[in-house]
Amino acid sequence: MGYLSQPSEHSNMKPISLAKMDDNEELCSYASWLEKHPSVLENFDKVMSVAEGKEIVVFLDYDGTLSPIVDDPDKAYMSDAMRAAVREVAYCFPTAIVSGRRKDKVYEFVKLRNVYYAGSHGMDISTPSGSSKCEDQKHQIKGVDEKGNHVVHFHPAKEFLPTIQEIIKVLKENTRRIKGSMIEDNMFCVTVHYRCVKNEEDISVLREMVESTMKSYSNFHISSGRKVMEIRPNVNWDKGCALMYLLDTLGFDNFNNVLPIYLGDDRTDEDAFKVIRHIGQGFPIVVSSIAKKTQASYSLRDPSDVLAFLIRLTRWKKNMLQKLK
Ligand SMILES: O=P(O)(O)OC[C@H]1O[C@H](O[C@H]2O[C@H](CO)[C@@H](O)[C@H](O)[C@H]2O)[C@H](O)[C@@H](O)[C@@H]1O
């Protein structure tokens, strides 16, 4: 299943216990953390000095990166200013949004036709032509995307769809009495939300309920996110593999010249950060206002910093083009 031999953390994984269910663990002071993961905004010119002449490809996570974290996942709207900035960036560079959410939902929020979308933590990708290098040809199927374009869909977890629907039904039933909890259908994965569960004891009960339910589904594993438990099928695929797949299918498989920029705030984005480190060039950028363990080289504080960075990136490209005239 692996793509370009990416190592998997999830193969043969059983449901695991969640040692930590909070948003993030603060490690040290933000100031000392910033020395290791400097702000890409404050060091913009220095950082971008290596980018001249390179093919920049931009990858953006959605929740917590393009939209602020809110209580109701159905109301995680991005601002018009952010939408305009992403649109401009996508005119300048190939741009993809890689989200844990189902792809159609992300498109509903973003509403931009000039970006690529990868949903369900990368397990739902549509690109113009698919990949000839992909080891997993049987999961590439011709179809039509949300924008009405003829595309090749890549669905590495397709076989799991009926079981995922069953899990959603069972989880909704089993967790019904936990006030504030919510089960989100993310197509190829499931998210159990507890941001609005006010009673601490209920959070522990919810965790036990989910773990005990998932004992019957050994082909799935549980990971943690920002006040969520994520239930994902055991396929060797993550946001890092999605990044590689997108680079390849969009024609950027010559790693000498490509410079991926990936912005994300969550644990699942760390897989993409690792891949960029492995490629050896590009900018893994974590969005965080607290010090936390990360593979990212640079940081941005919050979505408003992300907005400022995207605007700056577009301006940089326009200046470059101006210089060439
Ligand atoms: O990969 P992402 O685009 O970052 O998606 C990860 C999860 O994001 C959403 O949940 C998070 O944002 C919600 C809205 O702000 C918030 O209420 C929740 O507590 C956060 O965890 C989304 O609802 C999940 O399905 C995604 O898996």
TrEMBL record:
EC number, UniProt record: 3.1.3.12
Name of the protein this chain belongs to: Trehalose 6-phosphate phosphatase
Metabolic or biological pathway: Glycan biosynthesis; trehalose biosynthesis
Coiled-coil regions, chain positions: none
Cofactor: a divalent metal cation
UniProt entry keywords in alphabetical sequence: Hydrolase, Stress response
Family under the similarity heading: Belongs to the trehalose phosphatase family.
Enzyme class: hydrolase
Primary role: Removes the phosphate from trehalose 6-phosphate to produce free trehalose. Trehalose accumulation in plant may improve abiotic stress tolerance.
Reactions catalysed, as given in the entry: alpha,alpha-trehalose 6-phosphate + H2O = alpha,alpha-trehalose + phosphate
A Pfam family of this chain: Trehalose_PPase
One function term, GO molecular function aspect: trehalose-phosphatase activity
Record has Repeat as a keyword: no
CDD domains referenced in this protein's UniProt entry, alphabetically: HAD_TPP
Hydrolase as UniProt keyword: yes
GO biological process: trehalose biosynthetic process
Organism of derivation: Vigna angularis var. angularis
